[in-house]
Specification:
- The chain is 45% helix and 13% strand.
- Helix 5 runs parallel beside helix 6.
- The chain folds into two domains: 6-44 and 289-388, Aspartate Aminotransferase, domain 1; 63-284, Type I PLP-dependent aspartate aminotransferase-like (Major domain) (Aspartate Aminotransferase, domain 2), CATH 3.40.640.10.
- The longest helix is centred in the last third of the chain and has 22 residues, at 288-309.
- By secondary structure, the protein is α/β, with parallel strands linked by helices.
- The N and C termini lie far apart (51 Å).
- The chain has 15 helices and twelve strands.
- The radius of gyration is 21 Å and the shape is globular.
- The structure holds pyridoxal-5'-phosphate (PLP).
- Pyridoxal-5'-phosphate binds next to helix 5.
Length: 394
């Protein structure tokens, strides 16, 4: 038997994928399970994007592209940054990757030495700590307290910094909490990063999904110094419902981007050519479908949020963005006779046939994550089931 590497033995598999797999297994056995674990929009990719990708293949664009992405796509991304955020980037400061996930993975590979620390606010997206560990780094968690809308403060960041700190991750709008950092909160964090020369990794993948009039501000917009200190991570997966196309990108300092491109040239060669053509259309074509999907998410969220908070022992901050609700269910779990939220979630799946992700997967064990990337009808049925389950156990 061949021993696995030390590096890989530290990695835990994605719990969100595990829950989705378990829900599918129960469904395949004939049970009427509702899965709210998924992290992808339930809409099809807009037709103009599909057509553009199709045309590109017919026109013969089926070969390798430059490792860091097509010039035309980089131009479209540069145009998007300028239009949406007033940010100026050159092509040498952009790399197109196989999804935002791989932009992050490659970034950690090029910035971390063994033992370097990356500060990750909790609750966090499940892949951040694992990717840091895979690059030899150490994740350092700071508690984004529920009382502070799951966000960290400049002071907390300052206290967590050591001589080994290399970077901090800011994910706004956040998966799993749906919270957004304000300009002022970002400025406070930015000041600390400037003083200690800490790289800011700004994951803005949910940028287009904003509700109740909330705005998205990138920390890179606050000053030229902060722009220089920031690598923005983004992509078309969530904004244009293109999860399976695998197109993401990173924008930042030229030296970092070049190193990432060198790694890509030896690992992926390039993001799928056809998908790159789809992404060009996503950014240069009509943005109407993006807004339509946003409106659908907002409508669902408003209805479901209210229903959810009517369940005894459940409290939930109203999401400002993304497509997740992140209720605190500690009291509901206790009142239902469970020792912890993990066993409550397990029973929800087995007895109420609703799959949600336990907050322990995101570093906050009192919460659960429900994705509202499902039809309103299914969402209402799922919340009714949770409500009846909690009532039946009291
Ligand atoms: N960042 C966050 C916070 C996410 O939730 C996700 C996907 O779930 C990603 C990055 C990765 O997105 P992509 O599908 O582009 O790899």
């Amino acid at each position: 038997m061949i021993e696995l590497s030390n590096r890989v033995s530290k990695v835990t598999p994605s719990s969100t994928l595990a829950i989705t797999a378990k829900a599918k297994e129960l469904k395949a056995s004939g049970l009427d399970v509702i899965g709210l674990g998924a992290g992808e929009p339930d809409f099809n990719t807009p037709e103009n994007i599909i057509q553009a990708a199709y045309r590109s293949m017919e026109e013969g664009h089926t070969k390798y592209t430059p490792a860091g992405g097509q010039a035309e796509l980089k131009k479209a991304i540069i145009g998007k940054f300028k239009r949406d955020q007033g940010l100026d980037y050159n092509a040498s400061e952009i790399i197109v990757t196989n999804g935002a996930k791989h932009a992050l993975y490659t970034l950690f590979q090029v910035i971390l030495n063994d033992g370097d620390e990356v500060i990750i606010p909790t609750p966090y997206w499940v892949s951040y700590p694992e990717q840091v560990k895979l690059a030899g780094g150490e994740p350092v968690f700071i508690d984004g307290e529920e009382a502070n809308h799951f966000k960290i403060t400049g002071r907390q960041l300052e206290e967590a910094i050591t001589s080994k700190t290399k970077a901090v991750i800011i994910n706004s709008p956040s998966n799993p909490t749906g919270m957004i950092y304000s300009r002022e909160e970002l400025a406070e964090i930015g000041e600390v990063c400037k003083v200690h020369n800490i790289l800011i990794i700004s994951d803005e993948i949910y940028e287009k999904l904003l509700y109740d009039g909330y705005d998205h501000v990138s920390i890179a917009q606050l000053s030229p110094e902060l722009k220089e200190l920031t690598v923005i991570i983004n992509g078309v997966s969530k904004s244009h419902s293109m999860t399976g196309w695998r197109i993401g990108y990173a924008a930042g300092n030229e030296r970092i981007i070049k190193a990432m491109t060198d790694v890509a040239s030896h690992s992926t060669s390039n993001p799928t050519t056809t998908s790159q053509y789809g992404a060009i259309e996503a950014y240069t074509g009509t943005q109407e479908p993006v807004e339509k999907m946003r409106q659908a998410f907002e409508k669902r969220m408003n209805i479901i949020h209210e229903k959810l908070t009517n369940i005894p022992g459940v409290s939930c901050l109203k999401p400002q963005g993304a497509f997740y609700l992140y209720p605190n269910v500690k009291e509901a779990a206790e009142n239902s006779g469970f020792d912890d939220v993990d066993s409550f979630v397990q029973a929800l799946l087995e007895e109420a046939l609703v799959a949600v992700v336990p907050g322990s997967s995101f570093g906050s064990p009192e919460n659960i994550r429900l994705s509202y990337a499902a039809s309103l009808e299914l969402l209402e049925e799922a919340v009714n089931r949770i409500h009846s389950f909690v009532e039946s156990k009291r």
